[in-house]
């Protein structure tokens, strides 16, 4: 259970890491990003519509001590629209 922990989503690029969300608060100006929460501890980052440039590594970080981080590699399949 996450209880009072904060969940953050980040995007890793070659030369930097970009903060996307903290809890339910977006830190990205990209309107395609949406954060959803389903009780008790399911935080989802949604990108719609997805684009080829969205490929890469995303990280979900939980504010434990030490922080818990799950890295996800996203591959976009299909033809560009």
UniProtKB/TrEMBL annotation:
Q: Which SUPFAM superfamilies did the record assign? A: Immunoglobulin (SSF48726)
What Pfam families does the annotation carry?
Answer: ig
What species is this protein from? Answer: Zootermopsis nevadensis
Which lineage do the record's taxonomy fields give for this organism?
Eukaryota, Metazoa, Ecdysozoa, Arthropoda, Hexapoda
A GO biological process held by the record:
synapse organization
Gene Ontology CC annotations of this record: neuron projection membrane
The Immunoglobulin-like beta-sandwich domain extends over 42-66
Full protein name: Immunoglobulin-like beta-sandwich domain-containing protein
Family matches, as InterPro entries: Ig-like_dom_sf, Ig-like_fold, Immunoglobulin_dom, Zig-8
